[in-house]
Design goal:
Blueprint: E1 2-5, H1 15-33, E2 39-44, H2 54-67, E3 73-77, H3 82-94, E4 98-101, H4 105-112, E5 136-139, E6 146-151, E7 155-160, E8 168-170, H5 178-188, E9 193-197, H6 201-218, H7 222-225, E10 230-234, E11 237-238, H8 254-259, H9 264-272, H10 287-293, E12 304-305, H11 308-320, H12 324-338, H13 340-344, H14 348-358, H15 366-376, H16 384-391, H17 394-409, H18 414-427, H19 432-444, H20 452-459, H21 461-476
Parallel strand pairs: 1-2, 2-3, 9-10, 11-12
Antiparallel strand pairs: 4-5, 5-8, 6-7
The structure holds glutamic acid.
């Protein structure tokens, strides 16, 4: 079997595209696992020269590799096959399966206006025109029957051929159109499984007609040699308002999610659940489990909600459960690119300790900088609302003052400070969880963060005292 991912490089890799790539990749890995000869092909559909850019192609390739979706064949650039696409179209003309059309867009619109019809009216179909510059080549849709196929996601689908337009194969400048290039490539490259977004469902009827026509061209046995592929059209991805994800409105590019500090493995796991889920409803699945359990026939028809909150939650789980050394590497790589300054200001020992403290407490790598900024800042800014909420309580003020005094003489160790603060807090009727709040706010400017006593050790006695002092002084004024 052979499946393929065939992106058009008109932007970054969209999460919907990544899901398509993943599902294709999964069926190939599954087939390999069962001993079948199987291959995953990457084909870059770069024929739309006005909208394609080489950097988009590179971005797509990088994102696929980061997700671990490596391919066995390719990348094949569709643009390198244009001669074959054109020749196939001309062969269809020679076999009377296509015709030249001289109608301009305006001609077609004028004929449709007032008639409540849209699209091309097959005007030139019976004119037997010879090619002239500017003429388009159109496919002669066989009008007598219906086209049907079985979609692995949607079941049996069909359309009356009379409702299909005689679609364009070659434009007026003789450049091949999507349906032609896509069909010819899938045929020539031996693709057996076409898994893609549902926006291509309608095209598939045209593709099937074209596939059958091309098969008939040279060899009457060719249909048997190039059977139609298995088709599966994956459900739409929608946002929280159930609107189709759009690059203008929503965060959709995989690269953007990596920049926000999402891990490829968490993304991959989450993408797998967009329109599919294992029978036991398990949500966190290793790549091995995905390969074992994924089945195209179990993909749902309903639009899938791309829920960033849930992705956050998945990322949190993957970070939390990650081996400490691996997390350190990933975090350092991320910080080097996104917050180099932080690394310059901390010693290696400190940064290692700090990363261990934050690992269980973050959803994304981008939260690290915010969470550990207080270690390097000269002064911490305390938001007014947090200040009021914390220090309007007289007990909290007193806890801070007493802790500051006690610090001067006690041993500056994690255990000792823990004991000291606990006993000060209890004298005000507060458990340790509560009595940490006024101290944490003074030291970090936040009410959440890495564990307090470990943080104090990294911060050091002088800085700790200085920060407590600054807040203590505000009590006087
Ligand atoms: N190039 C098409 C797209 O990016 C995909 C075509 C296909 O998978 O057949 O939408």
């Amino acid at each position: 079997m052979k499946a393929r991912f065939a992106p058009s490089p008109t932007g970054y890799l969209h999460v919907g595209g990544a899901r398509t790539a993943l599902f294709n990749w999964l069926i190939v890995q599954k087939a390999k696992r069962s001993g079948e000869e199987a291959s995953f092909l990457l084909r870059i559909e770069d024929t739309d020269t006005e909208r394609n850019k080489p950097e988009w192609t590179q971005g797509i390739i990088d994102s696929l590799l980061a997700l671990g979706l490596n391919w066995d064949e390719g990348p094949i650039f569709q643009s390198s096959r244009v001669t074959t696409h054109k020749q196939t179209a001309l062969d269809l003309f020679d076999a009377n399966l296509a015709y030249w059309c001289r109608c301009t867009k305006e001609d077609i619109e004028n004929r449709n206006s007032g008639k409540n019809t849209v699209g091309y009216d097959r005007h030139c179909r019976s004119l037997n025109l010879k090619y002239e510059t500017g003429y388009a080549l159109r496919f002669k849709v066989p009008l007598e029957s219906a086209t049907k196929f079985h979609d692995s996601v949607r079941g049996d689908v069909q359309i009356e051929n009379t409702t299909l337009e005689d679609f364009v194969l070659l434009k007026g400048n003789l450049s091949p159109l999507f349906v032609l290039a896509n069909t010819v490539d899938d045929m020539d490259l031996g693709v057996t499984h076409v898994v893609r977004g549902e926006e291509h469902l309608y095209n598939t009827f045209k593709i099937i007609l074209l596939w059958e026509a091309i098969s008939k061209l040279n060899d009457s046995n060719a249909t048997e040699e190039r059977p139609l592929p298995t088709f599966a059209h994956l459900p739409l991805l929608v946002n929280e308002k159930r609107q189709k994800l759009s690059k203008r409105r929503d965060k959709v590019s995989v690269e953007e999610f990596f920049d926000m500090g999402f891990l490829p493995e968490a993304m991959l796991n989450y993408l797998a659940l967009l329109g599919w889920g294992p029978k036991n409803n398990q949500e966190i699945l290793s790549v091995d489990e995905l390969i074992d359990q994924f089945d195209l026939n179990d993909v749902n028809l309903a639009p899938a909600f791309f829920d960033i909150q849930k992705l956050n939650h998945f990322n949190n789980i993957y970070i939390r459960d990650m081996d400490v050394d691996l997390f350190r590497h990933r975090a350092l790589d991320y910080l080097k690119i996104h917050s180099g300054l932080i690394l310059n200001k901390l010693s290696d020992t400190d940064i290692n300790e700090i990363l261990e403290l934050v690992q269980p407490r973050i959803n994304t790598l981008s939260e690290i900088e915010k969470m550990i900024g207080f270690f390097i800042e000269d002064e911490v800014a305390i938001p007014q609302d947090l200040y009021d909420k914390t220090y309007l309580d007289p007990a909290n003020k007193q806890i801070l003052l007493n802790f500051k005094d006690a610090l001067k003489d006690c041993e500056f160790s994690k255990d000792e400070l823990h004991k000291v603060l606990e006993s000060i807090g209890l004298s005000f009727g507060k458990k340790l969880g509560k009595s940490q709040a006024p101290i944490r706010l003074a030291l970090t400017g936040s009410n959440v963060g890495p564990p307090l006593f470990e943080s104090l050790m990294i911060l050091g006695k002088d800085k700790t005292l200085a920060r407590l002092d600054i807040v203590a002084k505000t009590f006087l004024g």
